[in-house]
Specification:
It is a single chain. By secondary structure, this protein is of the alpha/beta class. Helices cover 47% and strands 14% of the residues. It has two domains: 5-126, Response regulator (Rossmann fold, 3-Layer(aba) Sandwich), CATH 3.40.50; 142-197, Orthogonal Bundle (Arc Repressor Mutant, subunit A), CATH 1.10.10.10. Residues 133-198 form the HTH luxR-type domain. Keywords: DNA-binding, Transcription, Transcription regulation.
Length: 200
């Protein structure tokens, strides 16, 4: 057996954190450490919403760039896709996250592999065209989609405004609203996220 993989635990709820830590301690191929020193971070949440997706992004953005395994109490339709788009390398439902499955997901993430249970994978792959995705506000309006498509094609704000017959301020507001709603950094991040999440 090789060197144990250092894994950290991140949770908003101390009870969830303690339970996850206890489960990980039962895995000899893993060693539990502070999240800042981890190669893999396990995020345990009740449900997935904007705050939890921010946790995934923030954890991934840490200096050590740990892989993230997300363990959720429940995932609504489209949540798996949002989690993967935010940077999660593994997904598990809490009721299925015994020591063996959790260790498997962590070890796979440590090797830049991705693990998603079959039912969640079907949720990602089997999206009906035009269906609502994710939490409330998880889709784009026709106007938002039109603006983002033009941003994706490399058009500047003035060009988009002229072609769509909007004011430049309206175009800026539309892009700002998208980045705020999905907690994105900028226009390029908005386009990338929309493409990966199947919203565009």
């Amino acid at each position: 057996m090789g060197v144990p993989v250092p894994v950290g635990v991140v949770a908003l709820d101390p009870v969830l954190e303690a339970g996850t830590r206890s489960t990980l301690l039962a895995c000899p191929e893993l060693t539990v450490c502070e999240p800042g020193k981890a190669r893999v971070a396990v995020l345990t949440v009740d449900r997935l919403g904007p705050a939890e997706l921010d946790m995934v992004r923030t954890t991934r953005a840490h200096l050590t760039r740990p892989a993230v395994v997300l363990v959720a109490g429940a995932l609504a339709s489209g949540d798996a896709l949002h989690a993967l788009a935010a940077g999660a390398r593994g997904l598990l439902l809490r009721r299925e996250a015994d020591a063996s499955r959790l260790a498997h997901a962590v070890l796979a993430a440590a090797q830049d592999d991705c693990t998603v249970p079959t039912d969640l994978l079907e949720q990602v792959l089997d999206r009906p065209e035009g269906a609502e995705r994710g939490w409330a506000g998880g889709s784009l309006s026709d106007r938002e989609r039109s603006v983002l498509r033009m941003v994706a094609d490399g058009h500047e704000t003035a060009e988009i405004a002229q072609q769509l017959a909007y004011s430049p301020r309206t175009v800026t507001t539309v892009v700002h609203d998208i980045t705020q709603r999905f907690r994105l950094r900028n226009r390029a991040h908005a386009v990338a996220y929309a493409l990966r999440a199947g919203l565009l």
